């Protein structure tokens, strides 16, 4: 059985959302496809390599299979992954592969899991791997659309976005870095999170010009919590000089920068649109 799930872009609110603040998030039209087949052993084949259950190479799929066994104990499965979502780039590739794996397994093994169960299970998988997570990535991969999270307030985003890929980085490491900073400066960091919260809540009611001002403000606050870097700041400044308003999306430290597309896009960037559909079964 083949299932697919979309990647995502966090417009506003990454990191703050881990501490109960709001974020504005949208699914995007890049998908991860996972095929699950009955098999006598566990095999995982993805762009990362071909392994058995392997927490180093395929941590999300391995934990997804373990968590699936809470619903139905299985002795083997072949999982084949093909993804349009760049890995370790802040675009939700890990959540998409987790959610699509759970959906494909549930259909292949005849276990009825509704979207709430898929989301809750994928959230557990994320915490298994990362230690700390808000659940925003599995939520958006499961349900699609654009939302204020965690309220689940649906919004419409009449924009197309450009994305510039930087370099790969680990979400776990960036989440730990912020946790560390917050431990040392709890009140100051919480005030920054409060400001990010207000930005995320304000954004859905804004026109283009204000939306771009909020992008600038949120990027500055991400810098304040240490998830930008001199290299990233340099790229952001260069783009700002060229007239673009951009911010990191996702955990930062690398990953991707996004902005709103209006006629022109930075060299080397790709365009993505909000995606309405979440996880789904594909025709094989
Ligand atoms: C990662 O896409 C977003 C973070 O806020 C982590 C999380 O919410 O789990 C950095």
Task: Please explain how this structure is put together.
With 284 residues, the chain is α+β, with helices and mostly antiparallel strands. It has a single domain, classed as Ribosomal Protein S5, domain 2, CATH 3.30.230. The chain is 39% helix and 24% strand. It contains eight helices and twelve strands. The protein has helices at residues 59-68, 93-108, 115-130, 136-143, 171-184, 186-202, 208-224, 230-241, and strands at 2-12, 23-38, 42-46, 49-51, 77-83, 146-149, 153-154, 161-165, 247-249, 256-260, 270-272, 280-282. The strands form two sheets. Strands 1, 2, 3, 4, 5, 6, 7 and 12 form an eight-stranded mixed sheet that branches. A four-stranded antiparallel sheet has the order 9-10-8-11. Helix 1 packs across helix 3, helix 2 (93-108) crosses helix 4 and helix 3 (115-130) runs antiparallel to helix 4. The protein is globular and about 55 Å long. It starts with a strand and ends with a strand. The mean pLDDT is 97. The site of (R)-mevalonate (MEV) has 14 residues, from helix 4 and helix 5.
């Amino acid at each position: 059985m083949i299932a697919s799930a979309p990647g995502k872009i966090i417009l506003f609110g990454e990191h703050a959302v881990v501490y109960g603040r709001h974020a504005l998030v949208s699914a995007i039209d890049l998908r991860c496809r996972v095929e699950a087949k009955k098999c006598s052993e566990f095999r995982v084949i993805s762009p990362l390599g071909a392994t058995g259950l392997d927490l180093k190479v395929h941590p999300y799929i391995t934990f997804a299979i373990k968590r699936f066994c809470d619903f139905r104990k299985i002795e083997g499965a072949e999982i084949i992954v093909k993804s349009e979502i760049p890995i370790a780039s802040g675009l939700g590739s890990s959540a998409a592969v987790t959610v699509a794996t759970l959906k494909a397994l549930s259909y292949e093994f005849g276990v009825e899991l509704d979207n709430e169960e898929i989301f809750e299970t994928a959230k557990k998988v994320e915490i298994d791997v990362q230690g700390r997570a808000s659940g925003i990535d599995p939520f958006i991969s499961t349900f699609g659309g654009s939302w204020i999270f965690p309220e689940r307030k649906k919004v419409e985003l009449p924009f197309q976005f450009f994305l510039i890929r930087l370099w790969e980085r680990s979400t776990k490491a960036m989440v730990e870095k912020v946790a560390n900073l917050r431990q040392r400066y709890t009140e100051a960091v919480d005030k920054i999170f409060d400001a990010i919260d207000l930005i995320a809540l304000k954004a859905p009611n804004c026109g283009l010009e204000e939306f771009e001002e909020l992008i600038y403000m949120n990027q500055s606050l991400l810098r304040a919590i240490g998830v930008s870097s001199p290299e990233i700041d340099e790229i952001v400044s260069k783009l700002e000089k060229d007239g673009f308003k951009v911010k990191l999306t996702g955990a930062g430290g690398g990953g991707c920068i996004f902005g709103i597309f209006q006629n022109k896009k930075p060299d080397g960037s790709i365009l993505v649109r909000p995606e309405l559909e979440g996880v789904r079964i594909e025709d094989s």
